[in-house]
Amino acid sequence: METQLTWYGQSAFKITTATGKLLLIDPWLTNPVFARGKEELAALDLLIDPWLTNPVFARGKEELAALDHVDLILLTHGHSDHVGNAVEIGQRTGAKLVSNFDLNAAMISVLGYPEAQAGNETTGHLGGELSLLDGAVTVRFVPAWHGSSIQKEENAPPFYAGNPTGLLIALRDGPTIYHTGDTDLFSDMALVSRFNDIDIMLVCIGDHFTMGPARAAEAVKLVNPRMVIPMHYATFPVLTGTPEAFDGELKKRAVKAELRVMKIGETITLPRSETA
Ligand SMILES: [Zn+2]
User: Fold this and answer.
1) What is the Å distance from ligand 1's center to 31 Cα?
2) I want to staple 185 with a disulfide (CB 3.0 to 4.6 A). Which of 12, 148, 154, 215 is the partner?
3) Strand partners of residue 229
């Protein structure tokens, strides 16, 4: 089997490795686009691209219920559009939580993530690399310029959750994936590819809370991945960045990376690393 990547909308992805391990990143499956039907979406007056009417986006709850085996849940920061359904999935599947030290503590104490599934072996911090699942997956925490706090529910007071991070996920048989988390552009992004060739960069483009298309294109230029997949857009009306604008900004900069725009709910087969 080849490695598979599914996008659930916003920054939520599922990676199924070649050996059948299942990883979730920022698993907000019940996000407004993936979770709701067409009519409800129209009523919400969200920005609707034609591809959002893909029938799979109505399946957030069903997909959530169907996830019975998850090995790892990886989080970039504590905001609710990233923590998403992590606690529910963790409780049901026994998935281990992969996050930085402060976020880990907040996930356990504020949201009740099972402590036995969030120990030191899957907890790290900026610059550190974890070898997980018997070496099948390595994860490095890299910087992101954003905030990070956890709220028990909407309008509840925020709890400290440390620095936000990006995630560098290297699968043993390839590929190597860089998930930027929520961030602005910063020049040190170029360092991410100093130690690893990046096969796939998952980059936020929505603007307003993160970088928009132009700054995201500049980030791709710094990282120089083989393929780039945009994320963190179209979920809320304020996220105005679009894949079309992003494409234009990439072209303006003559960025070589292949742009792959995923549909919400779509699964693609990932190419192996060139070096693997
Ligand atoms: Zn976000």
Assistant:
1) 11
2) 215
3) 202
Fill in the amino acid letter for 91. Q
Distance 34 CA to ligand 1 centre (A): 15
pLDDT at 39: 46
Tokens coding 44: 């919400």
> How close is the Cα of 33 to the center of ligand 1, in Å?
14
Strands 165-171 and 159-160, how do they pair? unpaired
What is the bridge-based pairing of β-strands 149-150 and 200-204?
A: unpaired
Q: Which two tokens stand for residue 48?
A: 């609707």
pLDDT at 58: 58
pLDDT digits (tens, 9 = 90+) for 149-168: 999 988 899 999 999 999 99
Gap from CA of 166 to ligand 1 centroid (Å): 12
Instruction: Break the chain down into helix, strand, coil percent, rounded to 5.
Output: 30, 25, 45
Does 225 sit behind a cis peptide bond, omega within 30 degrees of 0 on the bond before it?
no
Counted residue by residue, the chain has a size of 276
What residues of the chain score a pLDDT lower than 50? 37-57, 276
Q: What's the rounded Cα separation, in Å, for the pair 214 and 236?
A: 19
Rounded to whole angstroms, the Cα distance separating 90 from 100 reads 17
Main-chain dihedrals φ then ψ at residue 110, nearest 5 degrees? -95, -45
Per residue in 87-127, pLDDT tens? Answer: 999 999 999 999 999 999 999 999 999 999 999 999 999 99
How many angstroms separate the alpha carbon of residue 275 from the centre of ligand 1? 32
Single-letter amino acid code for the residue at 105: A
| Distance between Cα 82 and ligand 1 center (Å) | 6
For residue 18, give the 3-state DSSP assignment.
coil
Q: How far apart are CA 82 and CA 74, in angstroms?
A: 10
